[in-house]
Prior knowledge:
single chain, mainly alpha, 2 domains, two-stranded antiparallel ribbon, 5% strand
Amino acid sequence: MTRWTQMTARVTPTWRRSSTASGRCMIRWTISSARSHPASGSAPAWSRRGSGRRRGEARWQAALAVAVAVALQYPLPGRLVLVHPDWLLPTLQGLLLIALVMANPRRINTESRVIRLLGLTLAVLLSLANAWSVVRLAVGLVRGTEGNSAGPLLITGGIIWLINVIVFALWYWEFDRGGPVARAQAVRMYPDFQFVQMASPQLAPPGWEPAFADYLYLSFTNATAFSPTDTMPLSRWAKMGMTVQAAISIVTVALVVARAVNILK
């Protein structure tokens, strides 16, 4: 039995602990990942804590997705834009993205308060801009002042919906276990999302860790199914975040499709 197996064979959630005669807790839950890689003698990368610095996640996935979200804001109608002139806010977001890429050009393994603040500011600006667009579009559709032509309406609704998917993926990625740098440094033990590779580590390589593409997939499936699919939220903020995203997606899709069908008739 490996050292990791000995350490983890007696780990249990607090709600399943039972006191022993000495007053200590007897652990009854065995982590299956310890048995999945007996040859390596170590736990999966995502479950290591305090094991030292690792390479960090590749920057290009998150950078490409955010760049798409920024670019998609330029063709939006001016009446749906938060700040005027229309180009000002997406341009500011693009500058923040460039600054973040310069701080960690290849891999996200360095963080400071300034870098963290820049990343969260970018996520906030994207969220505010898209939330404004969703509200303005929904109000216009309800009042009948928005969507006189089915084609432009579907394109506009599709752009807002896609930006919303990227924005929520960015939030999930930024906060799961403290963010990409905290995950690389194994600062926190407990994940906020349980991916399939965590539940079935024997199906994943030993060095597997979630990357931005995994959070993008999580956001996309939640926006299309309006509920979790194969990735489960564990923490309360993750559950509330997925609830808000599903509600926004339902409202956007329902109103846009209903209005477009009405126009086509």
